[in-house]
Write a structure and sequence with these properties.
Layout (H helix, E strand, L loop, with lengths): L1 H24 L17 E5 L8 E9 L2 E2 L4 E8 L9 E5 L1 E4 L2 E6 L5 E10 L6 E9 L1
Antiparallel strand pairs: 1-2, 2-3, 2-7, 4-5, 4-8, 6-7, 8-9
InterPro entries: YtkA-like_dom
Pfam families: YtkA
Protein name: YtkA-like domain-containing protein
């Protein structure tokens, strides 16, 4: 009888864990991160904080021809590198401007390793620009 209770408890915990995983992995990417964008070499991104698996806010500087890009809508998305955009291993979020050309984006990487990142910058005066960024999470 005791074994049946253990089995029932373990089964219930497994169902709860599965439900939590479904909720976390099925989060819809931020709408801003789904914009149709083009590459433009005059834009660049510099990350001012290191990447880690700890939930944190990453700070990035966006420039165009060396000048700060201000008042833009900025979004960061990333997929786990080497996994072909594996479902459930992607993140995305919208950044907020904290000072001219400097943006904070809250991100939680699920695991360490190499991620294929993209920063999308929409200034409102032109088509949104996507800037590919390699990310190594430690």
């Amino acid at each position: 009888m005791r074994g049946i209770w253990r089995l029932a408890l373990v089964s219930a915990l497994a169902v709860v864990a599965f439900a939590i995983a479904l909720v976390n992995f099925k989060t819809v990417p931020a709408r801003e991160c789904q914009m149709d964008a083009v590459e433009d070499a005059s834009f660049s991104v510099e990350f001012l904080t290191p990447f880690s698996v700890d939930p944190t806010t990453h700070t990035l500087r966006v420039t165009r021809n060396g000048a700060p890009v201000t008042g833009a809508q900025v979004c960061m998305r990333a997929d786990m590198g080497g996994m072909g955009g594996m479902s459930g291993m992607g993140i995305s979020n919208v950044a907020t401007e904290t000072e001219p050309g400097v943006y904070d984006v809250p991100v939680r990487f699920e695991m360490g390793g190499y991620w294929d990142g993209t920063v999308i910058v929409a200034t409102g005066t032109r088509k949104p620009v996507e800037i590919p960024v390699p990310i190594e999470v430690k």
